[in-house]
Amino acid sequence: MFTPLFYLKVTIAPLVVLSVSYLQRRYGDRFGGWLLGLPITTAPFILIIGLQEGHTFAAHASRGVLLGQIALITFCWSYAFAAPRARWFLALSVGTATCLATGYLVTVLRTPFWLSTLVLVTTWLIARKWWPNSAIPEVKIKTPRWELPVRILVSLTLLISLSALAPHVGAKIAGALSTYPVLISVLGAFNQRRFGPGVTVATLKGLMQTLPITMVIFLTLGLVLR
Fold it and tell me: How far is 67 from 109, CA to CA, in rounded Å?
């Protein structure tokens, strides 16, 4: 039986993705990288999980999102480091392996909330300090036709799957999984293959620049919703 919550799930993700895609086309591809650092998929997930499981569960999921940001940062840095030195599939593999390894460690280890937050901020500062340099080619990137449907499909699948799995895997793991960079993996690999590593590195850097906004949002939710 289709409930109002189900209809919310299947409408909120496409609406968010459509809005972000419009802003990206209007204000440029670098701006699109900044948008990817915002909680495009994680915020709707927390909203849905809060309505579905309650605010306490959503608070734990928000803390899981914060842990997942550590893995996301290591993904961005390792992918940006590997992109100028390897083909797209190998660079993506390096970033994914680093992300999964880090994600496993931060979810298995039990650390106080304040310590996890400190590790997150420190990781972000280190990645920004030693961000790989890469020449950015002067090309006009035209968004492929398949990109918008892929974004919507990925976001919708991620939102529905995680909201269904959350009661079984736990709030912390579900929150961490929601940060896995599916969209940036698809777009980064496409851009590197077609336009070279500079575009991918620039997009990842844009994501890193706006990531503190997401960090503050979920730090606040983790504290307020408990």
Answer: 11
